[in-house]
What does this fold into?
Amino acid sequence: MGRQKQGTSEPTAQAAHSERRIVHVDMDAFYASVEQRDDPSLRGRPVVVGGRGARSVVAAASYEARRFGVRSAMPSTRAERLCPEAVFVAPDFARYRAVSQQVRAIFARYTPIIEPLSLDEAYLDVTTHRGGLETATAVAEAIRSAIRDELHLTASAGVATNKLLAKLASDANKPDGICVVRPQAVDRFLLPLPLRYLPGVGPKTQQRLSALGLQTVADVRAQSEAQLIEWLGRTGERLFQQAYGIDERPVQAERIRKSVSAEDTLSDDLSLEALAPHITAMAEKTWRTAQRGGYSGRTVILKLKTADFRILTRHSSLGTAPTSADELAECATALLDRVGMPASTRFRLVGVGMTNLQSTEQDPQAEQHRLFD
It folds into this structure.
């Protein structure tokens, strides 16, 4: 983000857990950085981790590629147009998981309370466990130094009193930076932030907020909670709490994930026959998330929402879990035959998920290294 680091005034709504010390560590362009580290010929070049072709997507992009506008989850064909000089590298998730476990071992030197979000980021509660260091900031710096010296990679870190602020802070000075948001600094850090940086504010929500005249956190602070709820429902309630830096969630170590899914609200309401490409896209997104965590699922779920907001789910339990995004898409698309709605029905949302998760690794300890939300 390249934003400010600290401030001076303390918001009245932010104090409930000011005694907590949370560090959020985010590896910089992780997959692409591992590829560049392990193959010197890729250093300094725009690297895209992912396949080529109309059905492929970008799993990760180096900072050299990001300068051209290439981003993760982007169709590979678009990435090629934006950066014709990009070097495409097939992802190697087994190698990325191995490096992620090395990073996790560094975390464990300072605290046992580690909540991974994915292979490349995690929350650490260092309120009491600091590996002999006096401050959370010192822990964050020690972790970043160890990652640099031992693994020859870089990481960015945010230090704050809760998970929301720590995650926002870790983005503030990427790559290879640190940002500390002290309790008395919350207002100066938060108020200028564009709302797109807040979790859950995607492009569509951002457009809706912009139409209401809400561009920054300060704009949200100028509204009452009741007004925000009237405009936005539950989103307004969440936005109000985020604007004041409120986040009561504890860091949850080794939280077992029970399912993985992705969904998308369509720009236009579509007939059942027109949903297959969107199901495929959501299956690919779900598959990427599952692969990053090292697991697959034996139960495939298709979620649909009709134009009149009726939610439908159909599922299929398989003898063996899908082994590719194509298999997952095929299973999910087959569930269209079981929707059982009139031909005139139109749908506004598509989702694909997996449950009954199982590790794709043989290591019995692999459960501890899953991808968590």
